[in-house]
Amino acid sequence: xxxxxxxxxxxxxxxxxxxxxxxxxxxxxxxxxxxxxxxxxxxxxxxxxxxxxxxxxxxxxxxxxxxxxxxxxxxxxxxxxxxxxxxxxxxxxxxxxxxxxxxxxxxxxxxxxxxxxxxxxxxxxxxxxxxxxxxxxxxxxxxxxxxxxxxxxxxxxxxxxxxxxxxxxxxxxxxxxxxxxxxxx
Length: 185
Prior knowledge:
Elements: E1 2-6, H1 12-24, E2 29-33, H2 35-44, H3 49-54, E3 58-60, E4 78-84, H4 86-93, H5 100-110, E5 114-119, H6 126-137, E6 141-142, H7 156-170
Parallel strand pairs: 1-2, 1-4, 2-3, 4-5, 5-6
């Protein structure tokens, strides 16, 4: 199972599209949505919360720290936090597991499971960069939502697909969501 967490940063569409792609590939997912993410979803997308929850195999409440995913004995494979707010990033980097999102990240890192953080903030303060470095030093993958232009995107959807495709690449899941670099074209 791949755990997907959406936090209160701009770019919740990346998490929603990742869930859809994983569902289309019949990959089991667990989903966490922070309260601030619910607000961002409402402002940035036309998706209903219940429809997003249906994309996941299982939904977990972020304030239920007794759920199975908060224990190292739960056998999930990977964690993707997309988008990741700077608050969540700070909690993870500093071991402050005050909710299920930061706790599952704590579990993933301590158990050496693939952990992908997709930060959404610009510009970045030094403390943001230091927190990213802390997570990276523990084996986490920092995958900023930075679109490429070598693939000549024509729409926002093209840029969204690029980021989701890069997340899937980091999970070592084959996909054709974006045009890959080809110097001969």
